[in-house]
Amino acid sequence: MRTAIRKPSLLKILIVENEPMVSKLLQSQLQRLGYQIAGIAADSATAIQTARDTKPGLIIMDLRLTDPETGVDDPEEGIKATIAIQKAYPTPVILLTTDEKPELIQRAVEAGVGAYLVKPVQDVDLERAILTSLSRFEDLMALRRVNSELNRANLNLIAEVTARIQAEDAAQNRARQMSLLYEASLELSSQIDLENLLTTIVDRATKLLPSNNSALYLLDEENRKLNLVVKCNFPDGSENIDLKLGKKIAGRVALTGELLMVEDLASWDKQTGSELLSTRRMLSAPLKVGGRILGVINIGDTDKGGAYTENEAHIIQLFADQTAILIENARLYTSVTREKNFRKAVEESIMSGISVIDLDGRITYINPAFCRMIGFTNKELLGSKLPFAYWPSEETERLTALYDSALDDDFPESGVEVRLQSKDGQRFDALLLLSPMRDYKGQTTGWLTTITDISALKMAERRVRESEEIYRTLAENFPNGIVSLFDRDLRCTLIEGDGLGLFHANNVYLEEKTLPEVFPEETETVRALERSILDAFHGTRKSIDITLLGKMFNVFIIPVRAEDGLVDKVMVMSQDITAQNESRARLIASEARYRAIVQDQTDFICRMLPDGEITFVNEAFCQYYGFTETEMKGKSILPFLSFMNSPSASSITSQMTPQNPITRFEQSQKHSDGRIRWQNWSVHALYQEDGILEELQAVGHDITDRKQREEELLDLGMHDNLTGLFNQNYFKSEMDRLSNDSNFPVSIILGDVDGLKITNDTLGHAAGDRLLRQTALMLKNAFRPEDVIARIGGDEFAVLLPRTNEKTVNEIMKRVRDTLEKYNQDNNLKPAKKRDVEINVSIGSATSRDGQPLAEVLELADKAMYQEKAAHGGRGTGPLTEE
């Protein structure tokens, strides 16, 4: 009988976690849930000793711990520690992990782990895991007691058989049955897959007794019936697939929960006997866990009737009790695995970024899409606090107010459009959905945040507005013509122009409609137009003449490409050419406008066969690579499109289909002049009507200048133009980073160049600039590579020194002073005309310990620097003397 689960107030829990922050969070969560902390351990050796000393009621164990012998992190050390603890002091264990590898979970279950949690841990998941682990531990103890009883019985029986070799057949039979039961126990205990477990149970049940058929039913509690899941040696149709409770033998056992033996099936129940055909007697046992019925196992004998012995009934009941526990464990494992896999699949498939923020303003959970969207890693964001690194400075006040309003349920359900920034500083538009999270008491516990990148949508809206204005302007300058746009549904989205008078006079309004809807009787003309528009969506430009509304029109069908190179609209420009004399002039003017509007003469265009042989190149391609068209034709494209020569090219081109014929990439090449050039290419696969790849067309343009500007802008955002040192913005960002890092103690040195203003006023700003650059060079030589040296003002320099205490920073300051003094001495030895301005710098330092805010440390360093400056009349190059 299962014992009652210990109350939280009495349950002492040992935490084994090598990350101090995670350990503290777990302590806080457990105490908040009402549990007691038995102890804290950061490695397996301490965990084993603490478990022996404190005898906790439950252990929460990190999977990855430091191996006490090697001192190296072992991803399975938590399992090894669990095995050692279970040998010394069996205890329920919950495993903490960041990796849901099935093989690790299997080994953890075999080691005695009752549940596992994926970091970071939520309160509700922690509570559920504790209850599940305690329940499974009690089931495991019950199983061990059964195994212990079986072992004792088996040993006793073996001893009796050894002493009485010539004993009665009953004793021999009992020994065989107990041995089979023991073997069955070992085999079943090693299985965790439910389907395989059920099959093995039925197979083993048939071998336990002198019987030759068996069947296993599982209870459907909702529909109050038994479902036949596995059978052995029962003829088809001889067992009920579904069985109502109380009906037949199995139904009666499921209802009463008691074992039932039937000596003569034919006399006990004629209907049952007829259904079971040749089966003469049966033993039916309930599968129970904690008083709850899971199912029934039937064992039948076709060779003889009569009663089963009490020993046989006892063995079958032991077997049934054991298998019930194993079935429950396998179900639990399957359910947990399915739930975790489903949650992981859902989490990875969600395109929107989701985060959870507690009332302290700290991020406690983020999904993969969130990290991809803003460019930060999970580790960088978890635990960070408001305002977050992905909030632009200009949006911080507004975003803070939005989070406060969400606490009062005053946040629009449709969301709010905001500006966020990625790790590289790029701003993007996002839709923010924000709602408070509440516990079962209705108390707010934090915020649930969803962000969706709508930059493409906002850009598309702007482009649509801009493009529509362009097309309207085009239509206004297209005399007696009509300019219209068609989307991929062949629906007209825009139509403008002087020529619309004819349409309106005939009560024809095409906007937001398809051609067949407006011209139902012009079947052939409409079909020709729609075919041409469809061809344009595949990149084909056409000019056709059609007759419509009794007039002759010359129609240009032009694909309109988006920035990604895909055709997303088709422009149809048409003119009435009924008058033959005016037709030619309008045609020439229309073609000239067409070339001016859509012909892009600067793109590199080439065509090639599927094997890469070039069949066409335009003039821009030839000029860019320095060859003539004649020299290019027949050659391989691979030297020019290096992407097509990469291992991934064949797989990508093989994935191109008539429905998805385009791929894009950027590449860099070393040209004949030695320069590295970048290009952006769009490769379009051209297929025959039967779907066979005929040719590949590539369109590219040079993006070298853009790439260089991107690199220059990135460098300018971090460095001071004059000295080449880091600038004030980078210095502040490093201060923020080190405030949340494990680099304490952190020291800051501030320096102020003495006499810069005098140098500028007397010798000119060029001399002042040389003074600053020389000072920067001296500082670079005096500090370590990992130190952050920055110019934070006109004559002010600052240095961040991570993992540096007061003693070390004083040694560094002495090195700085010695460097400056040696420079000035060497400088004074030069001829007067070749001497540079003497460098004198007042410096001061301060050190942060135990998480002291670095802003306060900066102020202390600033005060120390000015005290030195004042003590030396504005020329601080030596230590202050003590009074």
Description:
With 883 residues, the chain is α+β, with helices and mostly antiparallel strands. It has six domains: 114 residues, Response regulator (Rossmann fold, 3-Layer(aba) Sandwich), CATH 3.40.50; 145 residues, GAF domain (Beta-Lactamase); 104 residues, PAS domain (Beta-Lactamase); 114 residues, Beta-Lactamase; 105 residues, Beta-Lactamase, CATH 3.30.450.20; 155 residues, Reverse transcriptase/Diguanylate cyclase domain (Alpha-Beta Plaits, 2-Layer Sandwich), CATH 3.30.70.270. The chain is 43% helix and 24% strand. It is built from 28 helices and 32 strands. The strands form seven sheets. Strands 10-9-8-13-12-11 form a six-stranded antiparallel sheet, with helices on both faces. The protein has a five-stranded parallel sheet with strand order 2-1-3-6-7, sandwiched between helices. Helix 5 runs antiparallel to helix 11 and helix 26 crosses helix 27. The longest helix is centred in the first third of the chain and has 41 residues. It is flat and about 115 Å long. The N terminus and C terminus are likely disordered.
